[in-house]
Amino acid sequence: YHYSTAAAIDEPIKPPVYVNYTKLLIDGKFVDAASGKTFPTLDPRTGDVIAHVAEGDAEDINRAVAAARKAFDEGPWPKMTAYERQRIMLRFADLLEKHNDEIAALETWDNGKPFEQAAKIEVPMFTRLFRYYAGWADKIHGLTIPADGSFHVQTLHEPIGVAGQIIPWNFPLVMFGWKVGPALACGNTVVLKTAEQTPLSALFVAKLFHEAGLPPGVLNIVSGFGPTAGAALCSHMDVDKLAFTGSTETGKIVLELSARSNLKPVTLELGGKSPFIVCEDADVDNAVEMAHFALFFNQGQCCCAGSRTYVHERVYDEFVEKAKARAMKRVVGDPFKAGVEQGPQHSLSNQIDSEQFEKILKYIRSGIESGASLESGGERFGTQGYYIKPTVFSNVQEDMLIAKDEIFGPVQSILKYKDLDEVVRRANASRYGLAAGIFTQSLDTANTLMRALRVGTVWINCFDTFDAAIPFGGYKMSGQGREKGEYSLKNYLQVKAVVTALKNPAW
Ligand code: ADP
Questions:
Q1: What is the rounded CA–CA span in Å between residue 331 and residue 318?
Q2: CA-CA distance, 449 to 425, in Å (whole number)?
Q3: Which residues, in sequence order, are bridge partners of residue 323?
């Protein structure tokens, strides 16, 4: 990699000039797709091709599943001691730390997110996830249970087998960590289907994982598209568990394919339209900053983005003025430049160019047409690449599309409310239930809202706090199951009850 991190601080650093790994990773080896096909992955700053990547489809999924099956059934992975697995995961984390900035640069290049955020937040978070799950590897065990009669009863917590995992493009590495970390800690083997928009960083880190001692076949990575590679993984009869993060629409397909094939259990982490509630007693300056972060972080491309900003009428006018000023101050530009807060949207799915970008602009037009007040932004930024000006709408009404749909872009919608009961009703009147933010200084208000909101995560006077130990997942159409934390382990474990008749009950 021909760039220097020092240069990143003053001027745009050059992204890595070449990409080492573009093939599929099957059974510990980088291989071409069976079809020989490749697809381009693009730089969202310009639309230029970064590299051509092997395009896996059903046949490659078959090969990857066979490798994972062998590494599970014959070992070594589930047959190793938990301590051995833990040590490999910890060595992997050490290598990640060593290569932190290279990995971050690759992530920025392929995804468009600011390099400073990738280097300081996401890659360290990814590393932290593997240390956290390494810690679990040797602490997973069953119970001894008192039962009626003369029996000794115990449970064994066993790995499920081959886990199929499908991830999106907004946080390529963090999603890899949420999925692969718990699966491997529990002794499963994995076939990971990365997002077609961002295939590069997963291949790079997987190579490091093998350098750390990961045996072949334990982690297989198939780059490729959803309806081909993704669907084949969901439908595979030899995949024992499926984990998916992406849109609610695709989540339904994943669940259906999984049920129709072999009823493999599925965890889903899907879309959201999360409320961020600013109460009348809130410190407005802090609330503005937090609400801004809640929506605009990662170019607005977060499933849990605080995309319905409810502001109490008493502080509404002041909030709108300040939210607008904050958005206009947001630094948009080349994500490799120091101080840049917002890079280009990741809008490229090489088949439908600028799909996501156009979708966001369409929602902005719909906001204007439906009568919301455009306070700032509202159009693309610059003429090249896929940048959008930080956009703030006030006077947003519940029935507007911008208040209901997941936009997945830098568009803040501010809604006015009068009292707590009303805001609870409105916040809960969504098909989604992923997360919520509450901004208040009152313990009673925080407690009321915290209990009333039908969402998987409530952040009080904070937002997007993603510790490895905190479970994450959705109510309603935002998903099924929880990832991260201890809760995530049960997605990857079978419970076997063992009942032994006692010959001599006295003892
Ligand atoms: P988005 O691109 O909006 O995040 P998607 O749900 O389309 O949402 O994509 C998330 C992941 O799901 C990607 O890896 C994508 O390739 C995959 N995917 C898309 N369609 C399917 C499908 N029919 N079956 C399985 N996986 C799919």
A1: 22
A2: 11
A3: none
CA distances from 361 to 66, 191, 340, 366 (A): 44, 35, 22, 9
Which protein residues touch ligand 1 with a CB less than 6 Å away?
A: 166-168, 193, 195-196, 225-227, 230-231, 234, 246-247, 250, 253-254
Neighbours of 262 (CB within 10 A): 12
- Please give the helix or strand (H or E) that residue 190 lies within, else none: strand 189-193
Structure letter (DSSP) for residue 434:
S
Closest CA to 52 of 28, 19, 80, 101: 19
**Shortest-distance atom of ligand 1 to CA 225:** 16
Phi, psi of 313 (to 5 degrees): -60, -30
Among protein residues, the one whose CA lies closest to atom 19 of ligand 1: 226
User: 49 with 42: CB under 8 angstroms?
Assistant: yes
Position 4 scores a pLDDT of: 35
Q: What is the pLDDT of residues 65-116, one digit of tens each?
A: 999 999 999 999 999 999 999 999 999 999 999 999 999 999 999 999 999 9
Buried/exposed 66-101: b ≥16 CB within 10 Å, e otherwise? bbbbebbeeeebbebebeebbbbbebbbebbeebbb
Q: Check residue 351 and give its pLDDT.
A: 52
- CB distance 224 to 230 below 8 Å: yes
* Ligand 1 mean position, distance from CA 167 (Å): 8
Which three-class secondary structure state does DSSP give residue 200? helix
CB atoms within 10 A of CB 2: 8
Contact 169, 230 (CB under 8 A): no
